[in-house]
Specification:
It comes from Pseudoalteromonas phenolica. The protein is of the alpha/beta class. It contains 14 helices and 22 strands. The chain binds flavin-adenine dinucleotide (FAD).
Amino acid sequence: MGSCIIVGGGIAGLFASILASEKFDSVTLIEGSEKCGGLLKSWKNKQQISFDFGTHILSETANDEMNAILFKGIYEHPELWNSFDVTKVSNSFSGKIYDEAQFIALHHLTEVDYKLALSELLLAPGRSLDEAKNLYEYAVDNYGPIITNKIFRPLFQKMQQAELEELHPNVHIIFAFNRFILSDTTLSKALKKIDKFDSKLAFSSYYDGLSGAKKFYPKERGIELWVEHLCEQAKEKGVEIRLNTQIAKINSDNNHVTQVVLSNGEELNCSQLIWTIPAIFAIRAAGVDYKSSVKPEFCPMSLHHLVFDSPFLDKNYYSNINEFDCDGFRITLYPNILDKKKSNLHHCTVEVLHSELSGNALSAKLADELKALGYVEKNAQLVQSDEIKVPMGFPKFTNEFVNEKVRQVDLLNDSFKNMTLLGKASKTEFFVYGILQETFDAIKKLAHYE
Ligand SMILES: Cc1cc2nc3c(=O)[nH]c(=O)nc-3n(C[C@H](O)[C@H](O)[C@H](O)COP(=O)(O)OP(=O)(O)OC[C@H]3O[C@@H](n4cnc5c(N)ncnc54)[C@H](O)[C@@H]3O)c2cc1C
């Protein structure tokens, strides 16, 4: 069925390349940097300790065919991987750690606010994502004014540097603010049986409501081991991986992409183009007529890879730091995920979405925050810190940004019949699993597997 060119060697492009190899005569994956993996790469400090770009614990999907491809390397090499039944996540809010769920515990509000928040949440009229003009409208009609103004507003000022009125209603899901915990577990379980409340309330423990899906993390190193397995599989299937190169030009004829020109001038014929990097780059490379006054804004983030001299007090794999006045937004606690018998390190990654500080001063502030919140002992010493800046971290999910992304993808879909937009060019998906499912469905449809 001709030649398939895939642009972007992140998880979307890699998975797409393996799927496409079943149908196309040749598949070439174009990756701009020296390694595949995108945000699933790992990084080593000078002591050769591995850190990831944020939290990446793998979970089986509900689709056996996808699992067989995605986790082939893990099933074949179980000795290299830890496997778990539960992803253990905590979160802190109002200065307290809730140590059995990633969702905010409403009873950590003041007693007066808790009672009000609870009654407002139960009596909220509800409004669908499509009906809400912005996050404020969605939040106030689904969760009520206390949660909207005392939780959503300050947290989105911290996470997105934006007011709720500017943001797209979907964005709260990205930050796991779609569900809340009640102090009364029995009441919570009873209410969760009612559809209207199920989507707004969380189980009070991650041991409840388990899906049965296995979770995985490498025993001794970072998540890039998964990327290595996938690259091996892609190569076994005949995929040609071209590193350190980009698409300079897309040539087309009669609404079909016919050829791509690489940055070194090489021309590759193409019967199907799969694009997994932002759609704007395809618009430019193809010379499609496009004008826009919307300039996407990104929250430049930084990752702080910290090593302490004493063990962490929180035993979870990661924790969401939902504190308005802390710079840290999430902490990944590697010793709790790695092979404990072999790991005597006390290392973590703290993600920061916005701070007035940077470098060592910021790392020192983060260490103090972790001590104050009780993730680390008060007298623990920070023995090593490294900062990695991610200039294009999280986009600011404003209505303008989301709508413009959709417009760009629609424009390309209208312009070319043989271009598929996935991954970073997806209209709707952001998380790894949404991206993988969309990739699977799109390539399956494209390649007429059934
Ligand atoms: C800070 C942060 C935290 C996140 N946390 C989570 C999380 O906790 N859970 C979760 O499920 N998801 C999370 N995500 C989202 C997740 O990282 C993405 O869903 C996933 O990595 C996207 O995969 P991708 O292949 O689409 O893109 P990427 O991982 O970005 O890969 C794109 C690839 O394309 C390459 N590339 C870029 N430009 C070019 C070019 N011009 N030519 C050729 N190649 C190019 C890049 O080098 C890269 O390898 C997070 C994202 C961010 C930014």
